[in-house]
Amino acid sequence: MKPWRPGRYLALRLTAMFAGCAAVVFLLAGLALHTLLENNLMAQVRAELALRGTWGESAVTRVQSESQWRLWLVPKLNSMDMERGGMRLWILSQDADFTYGHPTPEVQRLAQAGGYGLLQLPDHPCALVTWTRNVPADGDRPATTIVLARDPLPFWNTLNNFRLALIGYGLAGVLGVAALGYGIARVGLRPLRRLSQQAHALDPNHPSQRLALASMPAELDDLTASFNGALERLEGAYRQLEAFNADVAHELRTPLTNLIGQTQVLLSRPRAAAELAEVMHSNLEELERLKAIVNDMLFLARADQGAAASRHAEVSLAEEVAKVLDYLEFMVEDHGVRVVVRGDARGCLETALLRRALSNLLQNAIEHSSAGDEIEVAIGREGERLSVAVSNPGAAIDQRHLAHLFDRFYRADSARRNAGGNHGLGLAIVKAIAVMHRGTVFARSEHGRNTFGLTLGL
C-alpha cells in the first residue's frame, strides 16, 4: 500500500491551491481594510483634537488678564471635565498664574515640538495622540502653549475587534473556499477518473484496445492521444517481440534439427571413422552457425542496453572499406561482381564495429547481385555526420518492406530463403552499430538499384 501524501492526490492539491489563493486574497484584502480603518480612525482622532483645540485657542485668546483667567477660563475648563470624554488639556506659560493642569516633563517636551505627537502615560495601554498650538501674548496674558491630548483606546479597541473579526471571517472564508474547491475539484476530475477506469479496463489479451477520445474534455485530448500513441507503440513492440521469438525459434530449430537428425542417423548403426569424421564436420558447421546466431543476439542485446562505441583513433572510411574488401575478396570473385568506392571521409570511430557494419552491408549487396554487376560504395560527409551507402543492381523492393529491412530476422521474401547461410541479423547489427555511433540507417530502392547505408555521428 502506497503511503498517504496530500501531494499524491490531485483533488487535494487543487484544494490546497484554492485555499492558498483564497488565503492570499483575504490577507491582502484584510490588510487593506485594516490600514484604511486605522487611517480613518487616526484621522477622526486628529480631527477631534483640532476641533477641540481650536475652541481652546479661542477661549485662551479671549483672556487678557489674570482675573479673567482665574475667574472665568479655569472654572470653565474644569466644568467641561475633559477627561471623561477621553481628552486631556494642559496650558503652559512662563507665568505660573497662566497655566492649567499639571504638565509633566514629557508634556513640556511636546509643547516645544509643536504639531501632532504621541504621549505615553505610565500604566496606560496605548499612547495618547496630542495636538499643540502656541497662542501669542495679549494684554496682561503672556504667550501660552496649549497641549491637547486624546486617548485613542476606544478606537484601538474598535480596531482590535475589527482585526479579530477579519482573522475569524478570513479563516472561515479560507475553509469555505477549501471545501467548495474540493467539491469543484472532485467534479472537475471526473473525466480523469473515467480515463483511469478505461485504462484499468485495458486487457493484455486485446492489445488493440484504445481509450475513447469522444468522452474526454478538450483539455485531455492531448493526454489521451499520447496514451493511445503509447499503446500503439507497445502493441507494435509486442508484435515485434512475438515475431522475434518466432524467428529465433525458427533460426535455432533448423540447425538443432540437423544436429539431432545427423546424430540419430550416426548412432543408428556402427560407422566407419571417415563417415564419423564427415558427420562431425557437418555438425561443427551447424554449431558454428548456432554460435554466430547467439553471438549476434548477445551483441544486439548489449546495444539495446545503451552501449556506446569507443572512439580511439581517426580513420579513413575508404581505407576501412578497402580492408573489408580484402577480407571478402574470395566472396567477390565467386559471385563475379565488381566493387567501386567513391569518395572518402575521416572521423574518430571504433574500427572493429565499423568493419563489422561495412562487412554486413557489402555481404548483403554481394549476395543479392548477379555476375558482372557493379556494387558502388559511396562515402560522404553531411554536416556532423559521416555516411556510407552501398548500392547494387536488383529487383525493386516494395516500399512497405524498406522500413523494416533493418529489423531482426526480417526478410521481404515470405518464403524465408536463407541465402548464403544468412540468419537475418546482418542489417539489424548495422543498425545497432549506427546507433552506437549516434547515427541512423537508411534503405532506398530506385532506378533499378537497391541502396543500404548508415550514418555515423562525429
Q: In words, what does this structure look like?
A:
The chain has helices at 10-62, 66-80, 105-113, 153-188, 190-200, 221-267, 273-304, 317-327, 329-335, 351-367, 399-402, 426-436, and strands at residues 87-93, 115-119, 128-135, 144-150, 313-316, 338-342, 346-349, 374-382, 385-393, 441-446, 449-457. It is α+β, with helices and mostly antiparallel strands. The chain starts with 9 loop residues before the first helix and ends with a strand. Helix content is 55%, strand content 16%. It has twelve helices and eleven strands. β2 (115-119) and β3 (128-135) form a beta hairpin. The longest helix is centred in the N-terminal third of the chain and has 53 residues, at 10-62. 20% of the residues are buried. It folds into three domains: 7-159, Beta-Lactamase, CATH 3.30.450; 218-304, Signal transduction histidine kinase, dimerisation/phosphotransfer (DHp) domain (Helix Hairpins, Orthogonal Bundle), CATH 1.10.287; 313-457, Histidine kinase-like ATPase, C-terminal domain (Heat Shock Protein 90, 2-Layer Sandwich), CATH 3.30.565.10. Its main location: membrane.
